[in-house]
Amino acid sequence: MLTARNVTKNYSNLPILKGVDITVSKGEIVTIVGSSGAGKSTLLHILGTLDQPTQGEVWLNNVNLTGLSGNALADFRNRHIGFIFQFHHLLPEFSALENVCVPGFIAGTRSSEVKEKAAFLLKTLGLGHRLEHKPSALSGGEQQRVAVARALINNPDVVMADEPTGNLDSRNARELHNMFLQLRDQFQQTFIIVTHNEELAPLSDRQLLMKDGKII
Domain named ABC transporter: which ranges (predicted)? Predict the structure, then answer.
């Protein structure tokens, strides 16, 4: 489903990624682990089209993502890739339901359809009683569940998660990883997760270890 070939990334004369190849299948949960500075987040951002490689190609469902730019790239990203970050990035003035709806509205989906799907996702993730609460009224674990629902609203082919448990306590972190497993089983959702959590990474289908800009 997703394939990266010979991906390199340089900042000025500093090589960050040194020829990375990766293939991820539909319905697979893949974790990328390694020490700080190994290139994990840089790789994730390139796979998710948030950054461009210096060399190499990234393909998703037979579309060459490195061949897209501008509005075409932004539209493809919105419709086919979901993102979960360490610090949620929820809009503080919006309710949980409204935060989840945002990518669906950007995609141009009918408002009633987006709201119905957002409510369904929040209920599925155990937040049916918190739809109208703003982020400030939610716990850290609840905020991250809202972020998960937002990542899923457009039925993405793949969800990219960058240290999604890094700001959670151990109980909420474990619950979030179990949620990823449930979403994989229920919806065949694909996840690529960058994490330092050595306890939870083995729960994935496959671990990739990065060191010095390469997968080893």
Answer: 2-216
Measured between alpha carbons, how far is 85 from 163 in angstroms, rounded to an integer?
Answer: 6
Residue 189 parent element (H or E): none
pLDDT in tens, 71-107: 999 999 999 999 998 777 899 999 999 999 999 999 9
Backbone angles phi, psi at 7, to 5 degrees: -80, 125
Do 175 and 209 form a contact (C-beta atoms < 8 A)?
A: no
Residue 26 has phi, psi (to 5 degrees) of -60, 135
Query: Could you say which DSSP state residue 16 is in?
Result: E
Rounded to two decimals, the pTM is 0.90
Q: Tell me which DSSP letter residue 137 carries.
A: G
Quote the strand ranges of the chain, DSSP E.
Answer: 2-11, 14-24, 29-33, 55-60, 63-64, 81-84, 158-162, 190-194, 206-211, 214-215
Amino acid at 79: R
DSSP 89: -
* Full set of structural domains in the chain with CATH: 27-41+69-215 (3.40.50.300)
What pairing do the DSSP bridges indicate for beta strands 63-64 and 190-194? Answer: unpaired
